[in-house]
Automatic annotation (TrEMBL):
It is found in: Membrane. This is histidine kinase. The keyword Iron-sulfur does not apply. One of its GO terms (molecular function) is kinase activity. It is a multi-pass membrane protein. InterPro entries: BphY/WalK/GraS-like, HATPase_C_sf, HATPase_dom, His_kinase_dom, HisK_dim/P_sf, PAS, PAS-like_dom_sf, PAS_4. It comes from the Archaea. It comes from Methanococcoides cohabitans.
């Protein structure tokens, strides 16, 4: 009988000891209390062939079978060695990990077993062995990674088993984390690539802001100077075409730069403002465009609409109104409304343009997606800017058919203050 109160025979299946008798006032080698105290009391006077003794023996065997099944069912390798360093239990998975023959190391010293099997397989064997050798007392638990020479990576946990304040031994478990580590490595590599991609994007944005805008601005200036001179009609028309297309180029550069800056922002600073006042600022900034196409702007937002907003919200209404001007026929009407939508305001811009086909509605707020192939063409970024700003405000965007006839109703929502 050992210091745990067991008599062991190591011929049991799976390398597990078969208990012949035990003391009633101790717990088992893994620190588990006895399940049935009435049976414990009877084991002190265990007599082979006695009915009560037979019941106790059946209970013992049942518990041993349960323990074996639990240990064998896990994917982790598990071993238990006592205070003297003698291996008392090990499951099949443990032996598979270390290529230990069945039963070969039961009753042997764990340091000897590790030296015999572990050192040959591990890249970091000396480091792990040093930690194990320094174990002492109940606080001697530790964990680390095992790097096998064949590329496998295991995580091991070594922790003490304490019964009634007395150290009885250690349980060591081994878990294969090769795939997890590979996934972590892949994720880290992806993060590095993403960081590099962001650096390239920032570089491209700087090129857009400075290196492209400067020559486009020069072209605009020289074309305007040339248009003030007298040329034949054909030359004048060509200069005007250059001016129009250069203007589109400038708009595209500015839009791409705005969208890039917005996508780099994760949080905006908000303050309480009147959404109606912001809409009116956008309307005023586009007054010349409205007049040039003789479009009537009907502003029905006459109340006060307090919301938590950022100054960039004005860009939303500038883009929506600008699109309404582009795609509406001359002499038509554009309507702006702000509706009470529960805990948010719903701002709508209604035009009389060509409308948006149902199949195109889900895509019009994506970059470079435009629903129409009409002669008036935008950069494809305006509605993407709208969506990004509204997303940062925690709102939603959408487009519907004009209920009064031809055209569309573009809408956005912002939370009330």
């Amino acid at each position: 009988m050992n210091d745990l109160g067991y008599d062991y025979s190591y011929g049991g299946p799976g390398g597990f000891p078969i208990t012949r008798k035990y003391k009633s006032d101790v717990k088992d080698g893994l620190g588990a209390a006895r399940i049935n105290s009435s049976h414990d009391e009877k084991t002190e006077n265990y007599i082979p062939g006695n009915t009560n003794s037979s019941n106790v023996e059946k209970t013992i065997k049942s518990r041993e079978s349960l323990l074996r099944n639990v240990l064998e069912a896990t994917d982790d390798g598990i071993a238990f060695f006592d205070i003297n360093g003698t291996i008392r239990l090990s499951n099949k998975r443990f032996r598979e990990i270390w290529n230990i023959p069945n039963e070969a190391e039961i009753g042997k010293n764990y340091l000897e077993a590790f030296t015999k099997y572990g050192v040959l397989q591990l890249k970091n064997a000396s480091e792990v062995l040093s930690k194990i050798q320094n174990l002492s007392g109940p606080q001697g638990s530790n964990s680390d990674l095992l790097y096998f020479r064949d590329g496998r990576i295991f995580e091991y946990y070594l922790f003490p088993v304490i019964t009634d304040g007395i150290l009885k031994g250690y349980v060591c478990s081994y878990r294969d984390i090769t795939m997890r580590k590979k996934a972590e490595s892949d994720l880290q590599e992806y993060a590095r690539e993403l960081e590099h991609s962001n650096e390239l994007k920032d570089l491209f944005t700087d090129i857009i802001r400075h290196d492209l805008m400067n020559p486009a601005g020069l072209v605009k200036g020289f074309v305007e100077i040339l248009l003030r001179r007298e040329f034949d009609p054909d030359t004048t028309e060509k200069l005007r075409a250059i001016k129009r297309n250069n203007g589109k180029l400038i708009d595209m550069i500015e839009s791409a730069s705005k969208l890039s800056r917005l996508e780099a922002i994760s949080v905006l600073e908000f303050k309480e403002t009147d959404v109606g006042a912001i809409v009116k600022l956008a309307i005023q900034s586009l007054g010349k465009q409205f007049r040039s196409k003789q479009i009537v702007l009907e502003d029905n937002a006459t109340g006060k609409y307090n919301a938590k907003t950022s100054p960039v919200l004005e860009e939303v209404f500038v883009n929506l109104l600008s699109n309404a001007i582009k795609y509406s026929p001359g002499g038509s009407r554009v309507i702006v409304d702000i509706l009470d939508n529960g805990d948010e305001w719903k701002i709508t811009v209604t035009d009389s343009g060509e409308g948006v086909a149902d199949e195109d509605k889900p895509f019009v707020f994506e970059r470079f997606k435009r629903a129409t192939k009409a002669s008036v063409k935008g950069t494809g970024l305006g509605l993407a800017i709208v969506k990004r700003i509204i997303d940062l405000h925690g709102g939603e965007v959408g487009v519907e058919d004009n209920p009064e006839g031809q055209g569309s109703v573009f809408w956005v929502t912002v939370k009330k203050a």
